[in-house]
Amino acid sequence: MKTRLRRWYWSATRPAGIPLEYTGQPLEKLLGFLIVVVFLAFYLGLANLILTFVSLAVFAEYTFAYVISAIVIAPLWFFAQYRARRYVLARTRWRSIRFGLEPGAWGYARRALLGWVGVLLTLGLSHPALRFQLEKYRNDRTFYGNHRLHQGGHKTMLYPAFVHLLIGVFFSAGSLLASLESGQEGIAMMMVVSVPWALFGLVYYIVEGRRILAAHLTTGAMSLVPRPRVLKVLHIYIVGNLFRVSAAVLILMITGFLFLAAAAVLSGGFEFLTEMNPDEMAEDVFLTMPAWITGALGLISYFLLFLVWSALTHAFLTFPIWRHYAETLQIDGLEELEQITQRGRDEFAEAEGFAEALDVGAAI
After folding, report:
1. Which of 1, 6, 9, 85 is nearest to 323 (CA)?
2. In the structure, what pLDDT confidence band is assigned to residue 67 with cuts at 50, 70 and 90?
3. Rounded to whole angstroms, how far apart are CA atoms 288 and 280?
4. Which of 159, 245, 162 is nearest to 202 (CA)?
């Protein structure tokens, strides 16, 4: 059994005997994260305080502060996306040849902001064009060794993959409007037909769009032939999310039991539950315990929930999906590899901390 697992791990992580290596260092990530934590603490503690004061003084509500805060943080989010990709590529090697990405984070952030304004104004219809333009901006600045990658195609080529999502959202909105007039029939139609169609359309748009973009990515004579299966990825999403939700529910149940056990110890046994009003039981149990116990249990539950959620995400979503993409990918023009030479190391004093703090998926 151990031999089989070893062979499976080797074949899944190093296909065809060609290692894909990641050389990022924990200290780089920690340093980057700490730098950004200091910045965000200053921003959240000072800028948001000023915005909240102005919002309450002028408008007598918090909405203005929320909107301005979101507008200010949006460029940093896109900036972090690009910088995170640059760091990950700089620490990734295939056949011992480094990848790289040219600087251009603020240019990416500017294009992303303007593009998302267009997406909002067109009610989402311009998203395929924006997705292509942003991917082209990043891929045209990406290097493998001394070879620059090129994203071919045009900005309308993702619209066929967008059709299912568009239809699903259209019928969901129509069903919602119908439910306001006809009651339960519109809601039933939305739950049974339109919402599942929209969710399938979202997965189809993600997978098929990624396939189309990868199929038009070249460097010299080398090109990709991706063949991911939408239904396979959909199955991974469904099973993986079922496991994640089940784990979250289990953690909440364990937390509830710990609260009851702590209250029972303080009250001399579980008999006190029979004397409580069921409608007020949670509040009564909470009030019977010292603050340090409730705080400790809350802190443990918080970290346990997020650690388990993150671990299950990697185990049941990230790794299976990456493995499927790798197993269904073919590279043509491998003779071009003989012409590729090593590039210099892109030095980073620290990893992109904004990426971790703002959760843009840069941990891997």
Report:
1. 9
2. confident
3. 12
4. 162
